Amino acid sequence: MTISKKAACNSHGQDSSYFLGWEEYEKNPFHESTNPNGIIQMGLAENQLSFDLLESWLAANPDAASFKRDGQSIFRELALFQDYHGLPIFKNALAQFMAEIRGNKVQFDPNNLVLTAGATSANETLIFCLADPGDAFLLPTPYYPGFDRDLKWRTGVKIVPIQCTSRNGFRITSSAVEEAYKLAQKRNLKVKGVLITNPSNPLGITLSRKELNLLLNFVDKKGIHLISDEIYSGTVFDSAEFVSIMELLPNRNNPQLMNRVHVVYSLSKDLGLPGFRVGSIFSNDRLVVAAATKMSSFGLISSQTQYLLSAILSDHVFAKKYVAENRMRLRNRHAVLVSGLRRVGISCLESNSGLFCWVDMRHLLSSDSLEAEMELWKKVVYDVGLNISPGSSCHCAEHGWFRVCFANMTEDTLDLAIRRIKSFVDSISPIKNCRNSRSKSISKWVSRLSFHDRECDR
Amino acid sequence: MLTNQEQLLSKIASNDGHGENSAFFDGWKAYDSDPYHPTQNPNGVIQMGLAENQLSMDLVEEWVRNNPQASICTPKGASQFKDIAIYQDYHGLPEFRNAVARFMEKVRGNRVRFDPDRIVMSGGATGAQETLAFCLADPGEALLVPTPYYPGNDRDLTWRTGIELIPVVCDSSNDFKFTRDALETAFNKAQESNTKVKGLLLNNPSNPLGTVLDREALSMAINFINDKNIHLICDEIYSATVFDEPGFISIAEILQESPQTNPELIHIIYSLSKDLGFPGFRVGILYSYNDAVVSCARKMSSFGLVSTQTQLLLASMLSDEEFLEKFLAESAARLCARRSMLCQGLAQMGVGSLKGSAGLYCWMDLRRLLKAATFEAEMELWRVIVNDVRINVSPGASFHCSEPGWFRVCFANMDDETMRVALGRISKLVMQSNKNSESRKPCRRRSKLEISLSFRRLDEIMMSPHSPMTSPLVRART
C-alpha cells in the first residue's frame, strides 16, 4: 500500500523555517499575564487592529447579522444555498468594496468575480486554470512562503524567481524579469505567467507604476498571464499610493492583454477575518471565470458567511469609514515599530503598506551567509523570544532580512517586543570578534535546520 | 480544435472533466429557466433531480433561534466574534471536531468511537473526495467504483487529479449489489491495461440506489481491498438518512470486527449537507485511519477550510444531545413517510422502484416505458419527462448505470402538495405510455420473470411490516 507522491513529498513546504517558527511559538506562546516570558508572535500577518469597529457594527445591526431580512428569517434559503456563482448580494457588495479600496478608480463587474475559500484557494485555482503540470510562473523575490504550497504542490507547476535586491529597494527591473524568463527556458520550462503580490508580502511596499507597466509590457510581449494578488490592498496607509494593475489596463486599449490579467483578493487581511475563508478571483476572461467557478466547488464560501459579510459591506458608509480608520491605525502602528527599531540602530525598508516591516538585520550577521541568518534567527526566536520570519523562508536573494509583523498584537506587546530587541542589540558585541567563540554553541541550532523541501523540485 | 483563447488556459480548464457539458444538465437548465411554483408557475418544471433534505429544516431553524449564543452575530454570541474571526488553524476548532466526532458516533448508534484528531475539514464532501484522491493516487492511477454511482465522482475524483475511475458493473439481477466477481473483473481489466488500481470507492448508503450495504457486502469489500492491498474509501454522506430496516452499518464497525484488516487502508468521507440539510454551509469531513493521510489531507484542507463562523454554530448544535435525538428520529420518520408516499404512488400506477431504506431519492424502474432497451430510448424518455411531463429526474445513464430505464427521483426537497402534483404528472405519463403500447406492436417481449419481479417489489412496498404508513409518528401528525 502506498499513498500518492504528493502526500509523501514535502512540496507543501511545511518543513520550512517559516512554519518551524510557528511551531516554537505554539510550544511557548507569550501571554501578558500567564506567560510573560513566552515567545511573542511576530511571524503572523494578521490584522487585529480594527475588530472593535466590526463588533460595534454587529451590535448596531442585530437583524442583518442573525439570518433575518426585513424581519423574516432567511435561514432556510441560506442553508440550502450552494450555487457556486455565489450569493449575488455578496458579490455585488464585495465588488463595490474592492472598488472603494481603489478609490473607485477601478470598477469590478460582479459577474467576473469568482468566490473561493480564501486567497489560498483562489491562487491555487487560478494556477490550475492557467498552467499545466511542469509549466512555470515567474515570481519576484522575496515572496510569501505559502506560495510554494499554494501554487506548486497539487498543480505540479514550478516557480522561477525574479530576483530583487536591496540595491534598488527590491524593485522589479526589466533585466531581472528577462533573466528569470531565460532561466526558465534553460530549464526547459514553459512560462505561463507572472504572479505579483501588490502591495508586496513581505516587503510592505506598493508596486510603482513603472514596475506595473514594465510587467504589463513583458506579459504582453510574451503572450502570457499576469496574476496580481492584491490581498493587502486595503492596508495601504495612504490610499493614493496604491495603483492596482487594473487601473493601467484601459489606457492600453488591448483587449487580449486585458483578458490575461487576473486579480486575487481576500478579506483576511483588510478586514482581519481569516477564519471566515473569503477569497476571490477577478478576471475579464469569461473562460477563466467559467473554469474557476466550476473549480470553486472544491472550496465554496459558507453561505452564512457570505450573507453576514454582504450585510456589513453593503453598508457603504460603514465600509468607507472602516477602510479609512483601519489605514490610519495600521500607519500609526507601523510608525511605532519603525521608530522603535531605528532607536536601536535597526533600519527597515521604507514601506507604505502591509501588516509587517521588512527589517534589515544584515549588520547583526556573523557572516554574509544563510547559516549566519539562521543562527541569528534562532537567537531571536529562543533568546529574544520573538517569532519573526527569516528572509530565506521568503526566498530572498540576500541574507539578513527579516519580516516582522506588527498588527496582530496590542501596543503594549509591541512595546515589549521592541524592548526585548533593544536588550538583545545592547548585549551583543560586534559580531565579527566573537564569531569563533560562538560557533560551537550555535552549531546545534544550525544543524536542526533542514531543506528537505527543496528535494521535490529536482 | 482549441481556439487561441482556450490555448491560453490549462488543459484542465479547457477540457470537459468538470462534467457539466453532459446532456444531463439540460434537465437543470429546463428547471432553472422554468421552475415550478404552486401559484406563480403551476406548469413549471418540478425539481426532482436535486438530492437535498429539506424536510426537517424547521427543527434546525428552531434550534438556531433558541440558541443565539451559537452565532457570533447575535448580542449573546458577539463576544466570541474576534477569536472566531481570526482562528484559521487548519486543525479546526477543537469543540467543532469533538462535536462532529460525537455526532458521527451517535449516527452509528455509538457502536464505534471516532478520534477527533483524525477529523479533517474540507470544502464539502466534494472537497473531501478530491483531497483523498490527491492523497492516495498519482495521475494515471485508478479507483474502482461500483455502478450506478453519483455523477459528481467523475469531477471530484478525476478532473484536477488526473486519476481514472473504473466501473465495477452491477445490475438489477441482484438489486445492483456488487459481487466479488465484479470487483475482480474490474481489477483485472485495469491490470490488463497497465493501470494501477489504488483503491475502491463505496457509497453507503448508496446514491442513487437508496440502499444500504449489508454486513456481508462490507466484509467482502474489506477482504477484497486487504487482499489486493489497496485503499477503501467509504462515502457515508447519507448515513443519517436511513429511515428503515435494514439499518446502517458503517465501515468503521466492520473494521472494528476485522483485526486482520490493515486500518491504514480505510478512509471515510462525510458531510453535513444531506443528514442535516445545510449544503450551503460547506461542511465536509475526511476521516482516515492512516496517519500519513490525515497529515497530508490536513495540509491540503487549507484549500477548503470550513468557515469558523459555521464551525462555531455546529460545535454548539452537534453537542446538544437532546436536540440531536429528536432531530434524528423525526428526520428519519419524515423521510420514511415521504418516500412511501412517492413509492406507493408509483406502485399504484404500476411503476416499480428499488426497495431501499435510506437516501433522499428512490431508484425508479421505467424500463417498461422504454421503446427499446437502449440508452437512446432512455434519453428519449427522459426528454419527454423533462419537457412534456415537466419533471426533472436523473436518468440512469448519468450514473453510469449498465441497464437503461432506471431513473433517480428525489423526494425530500419539496412539500407534500408538490409531491402530489408530481405523482399526478407521472401518472399521466404512464397512462399515455400504456395507451401507446396498446396501439403499437410490442417491440420487445418482456419475460414473465421480469414482470413478476417488478410486481414483487410493489408487494414488498405495500405489505412491509415496516411500512411507515402504520407509524404512530405519521398518524399523530395527520
Give a description of the structure:
The complex is a heterodimer of chains A (458) and B (478). Chain A is α/β, with parallel strands linked by helices and 458 residues long. Chain A has helices spanning 5-8, 17-27, 51-60, 62-65, 75-80, 88-101, 118-130, 147-152, 174-186, 209-222, 245-248, 255-258, 286-295, 303-314, 316-343, 370-384, 411-427, 431-448, and strands at residues 40-41, 68-69, 72-73, 113-116, 136-140, 158-162, 191-197, 225-229, 261-266, 279-283, 347-348, 356-360, 386-387, 389-390, 401-405. Chain A has a seven-stranded mixed beta sheet, sandwiched between helices. Chain A starts with a helix and ends in a 10-residue tail after the last helix. Chain B contains 18 helices and 13 strands. Mean pLDDT of chain B is 89; it is low at 445-478. In chain B, helix 11 links the parallel strand 6 and strand 7. In chain B, the strands form three sheets. In chain B, strands 2-8-7-6-5-3-4 form a seven-stranded mixed beta sheet, with helices on both faces. In chain B, strands 9-10-13-12 form a four-stranded antiparallel beta sheet. With 478 residues, chain B is α/β, with parallel strands linked by helices. The chains are: A alpha/beta (458), B alpha/beta (478). Chains A and B meet through helix 1, helix 3, helix 5, helix 7 and helix 13 of A and helix 2, helix 4, helix 5, helix 7 and helix 12 of B.
Short recap of the structure:
The complex is a heterodimer of chains A (458) and B (478). Chain A has helices at residues 5-8, 17-27, 51-60, 62-65, 75-80, 88-101, 118-130, 147-152, 174-186, 209-222, 245-248, 255-258, 286-295, 303-314, 316-343, 370-384, 411-427, 431-448; strands at residues 40-41, 68-69, 72-73, 113-116, 136-140, 158-162, 191-197, 225-229, 261-266, 279-283, 347-348, 356-360, 386-387, 389-390, 401-405. Chain A is of the alpha/beta class and 458 residues long.
